[in-house]
């Protein structure tokens, strides 16, 4: 099977958990090693505020529609294809 980039499949990874990097930054998923798609900082924000932030809600909505092209890392990732 050949997969064309950017992928246009749904991702459920972000809907189930919140990834926190070693430095406290909340990111889109565990593959975001460098914090490219940061959605918050646990040392400066309450986890509740990060979970319900506009940035996270936007990411959830885009990825649930398969709009991976909106996020550099997601456009090349085949994990969590539903």
What does this structure look like?
The chain has helices at residues 13-16, 47-51, 54-64; strands spanning 19-20, 25-27, 38-41. By secondary structure, it is an alpha+beta fold.
Quick overview:
This protein is α+β, with helices and mostly antiparallel strands and 82 residues long.
Q: What string gives the helices and strands in order?
A: HEEEHH
Provide the spatial order of strands within the biggest beta sheet. 1-2-3
Low-pLDDT stretches: none
- Work out the helicity level: 10-25%
Q: Please tell me what the overall shape is.
A: globular
Radius of gyration, taken over Cα atoms and rounded to an integer in Å: 13 Å
Q: Oligomerization state of this entry?
A: single chain
What fraction strand? 5-15%
Count of helical stretches: 3
Strand tally, please?
3
Secondary structure class reads alpha+beta
Mean model confidence by pLDDT: 85
Distance between the termini: 16 Å
- Tell me about the largest β-sheet: 3 strands, antiparallel
